[in-house]
Design a protein that fits this description.
This protein is an alpha+beta fold. The chain has helices at 8-30, 34-39, 43-48, 51-56, 65-71, 83-88, 145-148, 209-212, and strands at 91-93, 99-101, 112-125, 130-142, 153-167, 170-177, 188-191, 204-207.
Length: 215
C-alpha cells in the first residue's frame, strides 16, 4: 500500500489519524474512562473482554486470560475471577482495607502520576495494516514515603509504545505492552487477540512530529 513513490502525503495523513486515535486513548487513560478505552480495542478483544474486566485488571488483560489461567491452575495463587465477582469488586482495597478506584496501570510504581505526553515517532507498516505509536509520558514521580521517610516528588518522563491495527478502516489497539518500567521501557507481554509473530518481521516507515507538521 505504501510504496516509496508518490505516497508521502497519504502516509502523513494516515499518521495524523493515528495520532488523533492515540490522543483519544491516552486522554481516556488519564481520565480513567474505561468505556472509551474499551471502544478503542480490537473488535475480537471486545467480544471476549468486557469493560468491567478491562477495569478490574487496570487496562492489562489478555483476551485469553481465562484459558491461560485455567491451564496453569496447578500454580499456587492462580485465580480466575467470575464476571459476577468482577462486577461486584469494581474497587480494590488499599493496605488499610479502604476502597480505592481502579485506574489505568501506567507503572508498577503506584507513586507515578502521568499528566501529559508528547509524540516521539509513528511507524506505519508498508502495507498500511499495522502501526506503532511511540509517546513520551510526562508526570510526577513520588518516592515511597514509608521508605524515604520524607515527601519527595520530582518531574519524570518515560517512553511508552502502543500497537495498532487497521480493521474495517479504523485503527484499533491490537497488542498490549506491560506498564512502563521506571528503570527503562515496557516490553510486549500480551498479544491481542492473536499471536502476531509477523510483527517482528514487518517493515515500517517512520514519521517524526516534524513530518506531520503538527500545530
Amino acid at each position: 500500500m505504501y510504496a516509496k513513490n508518490g505516497i508521502r502525503p497519504q502516509l502523513i495523513e494516515e499518521a495524523k489519524i493515528l495520532f488523533d486515535r492515540e490522543k483519544q486513548l491516552l486522554k481516556a487513560r488519564i481520565n480513567v474512562d474505561w468505556d472509551k478505552q474499551h471502544s478503542l480495542q480490537h473488535p475480537d478483544f471486545r467480544k471476549k473482554i468486557s469493560v468491567e474486566e478491562l477495569q478490574y485488571f487496570e487496562g492489562f488483560v489478555g483476551s485469553d486470560y481465562r484459558e491461560k489461567t485455567k491451564q496453569n491452575s496447578h500454580i499456587s495463587g492462580s485465580f480466575v475471577p467470575s464476571l459476577d465477582y468482577i462486577k461486584k469488586n469494581q474497587y480494590k482495597k488499599d493496605p488499610l482495607g479502604f476502597p480505592v478506584k481502579r485506574r489505568y496501570k501506567w507503572s508498577n510504581d503506584s507513586y507515578l502520576t502521568i499528566k501529559s505526553y508528547s509524540l516521539e515517532k509513528i511507524s506505519i507498516s508498508k502495507d498500511g495494516k499495522y502501526a506503532k505509536v511511540n509517546m513520551m509520558l510526562k508526570g510526577r514521580q513520588r518516592l515511597n514515603p514509608a521508605i524515604v521517610r520524607a515527601d519527595i516528588e520530582f518531574a519524570a518522563q518515560y517512553p511508552k509504545t502502543d500497537y495498532w491495527e487497521k480493521i474495517n478502516g479504523n485503527w484499533v489497539i491490537t497488542l498490549l505492552s506491560t506498564p512502563v518500567n521506571t528503570s527503562g521501557t515496557g516490553i510486549l507481554k500480551f498479544l491481542v487477540p492473536n499471536n502476531k509473530k509477523s510483527w517482528g518481521k514487518t517493515e515500517f516507515v517512520d514519521l517524526n512530529p516534524a513530518d506531520l507538521k503538527l500545530p
